[in-house]
Each structure stands twice: as C-alpha cells, then as structure tokens.
Design brief:
By secondary structure, the chain is α/β, with parallel strands linked by helices. It is built from 10 helices and 14 strands. The longest helix is centred in the first third of the chain and has 18 residues, at about 95-110.
C-alpha cells in the first residue's frame, strides 16, 4: 500500500486541549502515522518530558525547519543515527547540570543513542518569560549570539544534531504554572522554547530540539494527567535525545538533488487544529494546493475557519476522524462516498459557455 505523506502540526504555546502539554498528542501522532504511513511532525507533538517513542513512520523535524519543508525549501533524508551534541546554558546550576549529563549517559547505555559531546555557552542565555498576548506563551533570549556560537562549536567537531538545555527563571508565576499543571492554562515557557530552537534551525540548519532546565516543583495532587510526564523525572532531556537520535537530515533543495528520502512535493495533507490555520506551514500548504484537515482541538487562538475560502479545507471533529480521512485518501477512496447525505453527480451544460 502506497504511503500518503502527511504533516501534523500543533502550534506551541497556544494551549491546545490535545497537544498543549508534554507529549499528550503523541498517541494522536502514532494514529496518524499508522493511517498515512509517513508523518512529518515537530518536537512539541513528540516530546513527553521523560517519556518519548521512536517510530519508523514519523519524521521528527523542528518547527522552523518543518515550515521550510512545507514551503518547499528543504527535503528530508533518513539517517541510521544522528551524532548528538548538547548546548548547556552556562547559568545552569552544577547539580542540575550533572542530572542532565546523567540523562545523556543513560541514553547511551540503555538506548544506544549517540550522544557525543556537550558545550557550555560563554554567556548565560538570559531567558525572559514575556508578558502574554491574549494568553499565548511568549518570551525572549537576551544573548542569542552565545547560543549560535556554542552550536557552531559542536558542528565544527562533527555533531549532526543539537539538543539545547537552557536555564529558566525560578520566579515563574506559581499561580500560572499550577494552572497549567492542573490542565487549565497555557504552558508558560513553551513560547520562548520555540524561539530557542528556531534560532538553531535558522542559522545552523541541523536537527535540533530544546529541553528546559527547571528546579523541581512541589508535589501537586491535582495534577492533570496530560502534564504528568513532566513530573516524573529530573529533566525533560530524555524525550529530546530520543527524538533527535533518528531525526532526518535537512537537505537544501538545489538544482541537483541527491539522496532525499522525502521531498515536499510528496506531501498530500496537513493536519492542524481548527482555528489555528495562520501558521507559515499551513499557509504554504494552502498555496501549494494540499489538503488541509482542520481538527476540532480547543485552543487560545480559535480563529474562525470561515475566513479560509479554500476548497481543500476539510473540517473534522477529532483525530480518529482525521486518521480515517487520511486512510481514505491513501486508499484512493472518495471521502464523500462514505458521508451522508450522498449527493447526485452534477450535470455540466453548454449554456452561457464562452467561446
């Protein structure tokens, strides 16, 4: 059975009911990957703190690079294994740093992942959690150049994929943080996490993903199950290293193209939450005539899909229905044939035909 390459996007930091927490959209990704045979998605979907999963049918691509893929600027090349390097924010306390280094050792010893080396930034990254616009997670980095410099140091030593671990402020709003932990709010650090990984993707063009370094929080007995994977370990690094271990190489599309496993022209559909259709990847998919499968998935943005007068926009109620639709596309079954009412075919006439 032929595959139907599909892009799966859940934007970071907008509080999606599914995908607004650490790895809680991973089951949906596995379902869509099974239906399509080839799913291209990003770390926000796949990273579950201490929990993650490798899947041969899923390409793990950082969000900025995923947008470039959707726009037709890069292709993806499967690899047996990436050689991973880690950038540590130099402001991370010694004990927390040691915990993260032990995670790297564990991933080598237990999972066989190639984590080769690490580097400390020359200056602290200076993470600032910004004020929220309409509840959306935001933030900035005071010293982005030191991040790029550290990444260049790793690449010059043969590293092919980069994990970033940055120190986040200890004075995060406790009410806001607990609201998120209890399933009622937006991840307060997700927005600036995206900024960090986007920088590496944009300037160094290698697979990358980010894990925050945080001091352990006090026990919360009202924890939402969707946030539980963030509470069971000392760090969020395991899922990042697992995801990067077989992340595809990013291949610039030039006149001469060799050894590309997946070309952006192979993609047929993009799955995205309803009301969040304004991202670069989705707009590129619309421009290229792809199927846009809009799934009801409550979030902060919730823009009206009626603003998108696009014939290939298909709205569905859940990810079960999205998977069924992708499977129908994969099998060449007209989706309208299994919907009711079933309309008769239309007659085309020659009336008012222009010569």
């Amino acid at each position: 059975m032929a595959i139907t390459p599909t892009i799966f996007i859940i934007p970071t930091g907008i509080g999606c009911e599914i995908g607004g927490f650490a790895g809680d959209s991973l089951p949906a990704a596995k379902l869509l990957a099974s239906a399509s045979g080839c799913l291209i998605t990003h770390p926000n979907v796949m990273n579950g703190g201490s929990l993650a999963e490798k899947n041969k049918d899923i390409f793990y691509v950082e969000g900025y690079s995923l947008d470039r893929f959707a726009k037709g600027e890069i292709g993806l090349k499967s690899v047996k294994q990436q050689k991973i390097g880690i950038i540590f924010d130099s402001s991370i306390e010694h004990e927390i740093l040691i915990r993260h280094l032990q995670v790297a050792d564990a991933c080598i010893a237990t999972l066989g992942i190639d984590v080769d080396s690490y580097v400390l930034t020359k200056k602290p990254l200076g993470i600032i959690i910004g004020s929220k616009s309409q509840g959306i997670s935001e933030g900035v980095i005071e010293n982005p150049d030191t991040l790029i410099e550290a990444g260049e140091r790793l690449i010059n030593k043969g590293i092919t994929a980069i994990a970033i671990v940055s120190k986040f402020p200890d004075n995060l709003d406790l009410v806001e943080t607990n609201s998120y932990r209890e399933g009622k709010g937006v991840d307060p650090i997700a927005g600036v996490e995206a900024v960090i990984s986007h920088l590496i993707s944009k300037f160094l063009k290698v697979p990358c993903a980010h894990a925050p370094a945080l001091n352990p929080l006090e026990l919360n007995e009202n924890l939402d199950p969707r946030a539980a994977s963030e509470e069971i370990g000392y760090t969020f690094l395991p899922s990042v290293l697992i995801g990067l271990s077989k992340a595809p190489d990013l291949i610039e599309l030039t006149d001469k193209i060799d050894n590309i496993s997946l070309h952006p022209n192979d993609v047929e559909s993009i799955v995205v939450p309803s009301g969040a259709l304004g991202g670069e990847g989705v707009l590129a998919g619309i421009e290229r005539g792809l199927n846009i499968i809009s799934v009801k998935n409550k979030n902060i943005i919730n823009l009206d899909n009626l603003n998108f007068n696009y014939p290939n926009l298909i709205e569905v109620d859940n990810y079960f229905e999205a998977a069924g639709l992708i499977l129908a596309i994969r099998e060449g079954i007209n989706p309208q044939s299994i919907q009711r009412p079933l309309n008769r075919i239309k007659e085309l006439t020659f009336k008012n035909q222009q010569s």
